[in-house]
Structure formats: C-alpha cells, structure tokens
Amino acid sequence: MKRNNRLTRRNLLRNSMLIGMAGTLPPWTKWVAAESVPKESFQAGIIARENRKKGTTDWQLAYVRSDHYRSSIIEGYCSHTSVSAGEDLGIFVSTDQPSTVSINIYRMGYYGGKGGRHMTTLGPFTVKPQPTPPVGEHRLRECKWQRTASLKIPADWVSGVYLGKLSCKEHRYESYVIFVVRDSRKADILVQTSDNTWQAYNKWPDNYSLYDTDPPVRVWNATTWISSDRPYGWYPQVVDQPLSQGSGEFLLWEYPFCYWLEKSGYDVTYCSNVDTHNNNAGLNRTKCFFSVGHDEYWSLEMYENVQSAIKSGLNVGFLCGDSVTAVIPLNQLNDEGRPSRIMRRTGMFGGIIGEDRKIFQQMSSGWGYDVLHEHWEQHGPSQALMVGGRTTYPGNGTGDWIVQNEKHWIFEGTGMKNGDRIPGLVGWEFASDPPQNVPGLEILAAGEVMRADYSTSSYASTIYPGPKGNWVFNAATIFWSIGLSQPPGFNFPYTHLGRPHGPDERVQKITGNFLRKCGITVRG
After folding, report:
1. pLDDT by residue (tens digit) across 130-148?
2. How far is C-alpha 20 from the geometric centre of its chain's CA atoms?
3. How far apart are CA 56 and CA 115, in angstroms?
4. Distance from C-alpha of 500 to C-alpha of 479, rounded to nearest angstrom
5. Residue 452 CB: number of other CB atoms within 10 A?
6. Rounded to 5, what percent of the chain is helix, strand, coil?
7. For residues 509 and 287, what is the distance between their CA atoms, to the nearest angstrom?
8. What is the pTM of this model?
9. CA neighbours within 13 Å on the CB side: how many for 444?
10. β-strands 160-168, 187-192 pairing
11. What is the pLDDT of residues 429-456, one digit of tens each?
C-alpha cells in the first residue's frame, strides 16, 4: 500500500478527525480518547500491597543471541505502547526456525528486592519465521507480522511497566517485549516512560534508527521515519547490556527510579509518552509527574499538556538530561489506521540559537545538515522555559554534581555544603543554560562536564516555583536514577571516561525532600 508521505493540511485534518471519532472506531483504537477513561478513586497503599506479593528474579534474561542489533532467533513486539484494564494487547513473535515459544509476563517493581512479579504465562505457541519488512519510503521498516498471542489486561493488574519474556523450547535463548499498564485512579506520583526515545534509537533490524540515513550521512535529519511496529534491538549507545534485548531503554535508565519508588512505599502510577501526548495520562489526577532518564523526543502536544498542568498546579520532576529536545509528531496513522506508531523529526524545542548554531555548522559527519536546512517543518517552544534548562552543544560528557545553593530546602538533612560533589552523577547528557525569565528560578548545582576528547561544557540543576505553590525540579542529568538504587539486572554505564558510583544517600534524600515539598509522603 502506498502511503502519502506528506503531512499536508488535509492529512492533518483527516488524522485529527479519525482520532476524534474514537467512539466509532474498532475496539483496539478506543484507548485514544481520554474522555473514555473512567474516573477512579484514590486507593491508598495499593503499591505497597502489590510489593508485598511474592517476587522473583526469573524475569531476567539469562541467554541472548544477537546478530548485530537484532535477535532473529527469537524476538517480538507489542501492538500498543500502553494499555489499561480490559483492553486487548497483541503480541507478535518471530523465530528463525519453527519453534515452540512461551511468553511469561512480569510486572516490574521492588518485590522484596527481586525486582519483578510473575503475572501469567501465555502459550506455548508454535511460532514460525516472520518476514523482515522491506525498506520503505523514508527508510521505514514496518513489520506486518501475524499475531502470536492476545492478552486482555485483567482488572486486578496494577499500573506499571511489564516485561514479556520470550522463551523457546528448542533452545535456551530469550528476549523481551515491553508494555505499560496504565490506570485512571488518583495517585501521588505519575512516572512517564521514555518510549519515544527508546524507539528513536532502535536500530532494528540493522541501522534503521532515527539517526540512520542514506548517503550523505545526516544524523540529525528530517527525512527518516521509524515505526513502533518492530522489535526493540540491542541498545548500542553508552551502556553495553545485551541482556536487556527487546526492552528498549527501560532497564538502563528508568528502572532504578521505579524500583526505588516502590521500595520506599510511594503511591505511583505509570504512563507512556503516547499517553502524555493524548492527555489520557490524566496529569492533574496526580500530585507530581516525572520525566526520567533519556526522554529526548516529545510531541508539541506533550509539551503543551505538561506546561498546562504545571500552570494548574502539577509538580514536575525532570530527572533526566537532553530532555524535551526534538519535536516528533505522533498523530500520523499507520496502514492499519492506528495513530502513534510512526515517528519522525520536524524540529527542535527552542530551535537552534546562539553559539549552538555555529557548533552545528562546524559538526562533522553531517550532524548539523538538516538542523539548519529548510527541511525542518516546525520547531517547538523553548524547552528551558518548562524544564529550567536546555540542551546545549556539545551535549554529552561526564562530571560531578556540585552543590551551589546549600541553604535551599532541597538539601535539608543531606549535610551538603557549597562545593560538595556527588562523583560522576552528571552524564552522559545533561541540561544547561538556565532561562533568565522564569520567576523564582534558582540554581541548585552546577559545574563542568568533560568529553572523551577533553573538551568541556557546563550543566546546571535548577528549581522554580509554579503558580499554585507547586515546584519544577530539573536534576540536569540522565544518571540521576542511578543514585537512587541498583536493582537486579542493572548494569552501570561507562562513557566519556566516567560513570556514577551508584546509590547515594544524598541523592535519595534530595529526591525525598522534593517529594515531601510536593505534599507526597510514603504510604507503605
């Protein structure tokens, strides 16, 4: 089927109309309509009770076999990034030879230090090789596999990040599929997964990420398209963790934060980037929203929804770096009429300004070609005005998180003084250049980062008050969650000649102080 490649005004109106007609679409599309999600009352202690249930470490992969980036011996993907109770999730699996496959589903959390709980087993199924899709226009690789399994989400499944472990009877090799179970209940904390970014860096089947192009190489381009209808390949950047095969970047960056929250007994619920985009995440049903780790790719709607929620009194924590950087629309429909499955860049939040423009012009290997070219369709508003800092270039390196504002309430009980350092906590990407026009913004920590070529850049962690007594905290580093916990199956990154030490009482205390200021206490 030939797809219209241009996002014309007619196509945008068509897509918007289809999304607005969710009530007349097939059942698997109804989740798009935020108003269709029932309201639920606050359920105190639900996460603490969930984590008292029997856990297991069997969720971990023991054996993987990757060919370049993919695991063709056994691999799969899900029909949706997130689902709620009662909705149907499709799971698509392929093997390189006819095989017998079982799918064990686990919810990720604390569970007495085990890190996950077994929820159900699907199968065994007879699975055959499914076709590697041809290269489509804009380098799109979009699988159209036959469905292997269907899972109707049980009503008693608590919101969380779920891994499906794919195992084969004929051999020992394994891989994951991943999805989010969301709810609509009132909760203290909402954690958003960074699935847009997981997919942007997904090279499956080989060198087909958003950063790959036909010659001439243009890494930051406006022409490559990617699809969520494909397995997650072996993540190739910054941290070498083959045993995360198929799980995107969740186990690398977000998992330590989720593990720490659930271990501590906080009341937390989960959503995906797509839910924030559609606004069916219900941002204002919670007290605090968290963007965690490597959360680089946002739609304009995501920005508008979170910014609006801040103005309405939502607290927000950006425990991340290089966040809200690239504009990526999520309204395109795939060939089956499902939205949010095809992504591409259209611009950058805040555009390219100041010295960054000169740096992009000087970058080798075509990095800056399309950033400064007419191919860009639409930049977004400044990320700094919402986050409290922005991505500057060079945008990666490692360094110490250095206190600059010891009297601020966020350092209460840490014993930290100006100039005190948390070694290696900043990296590999970070926030810098705090805006001058955000009322009440304060710098909490600041310093230099160093790249492998010994060049340096700077970062700044900030906090500012919202209009309703709420707060927005910018930790300014992707590595923040590594200072909170070291769950089973977690591997430390080592990049740009540096790495964080791991769990640190000061990082835990700072995060706890922020939550307490947001009116959030442990309910376990």
Report:
1. 999 999 999 999 999 999 9
2. 26
3. 7
4. 7
5. 12
6. 20, 25, 50
7. 19
8. 0.90
9. 25
10. unpaired
11. 999 999 999 999 999 999 999 988 899 9
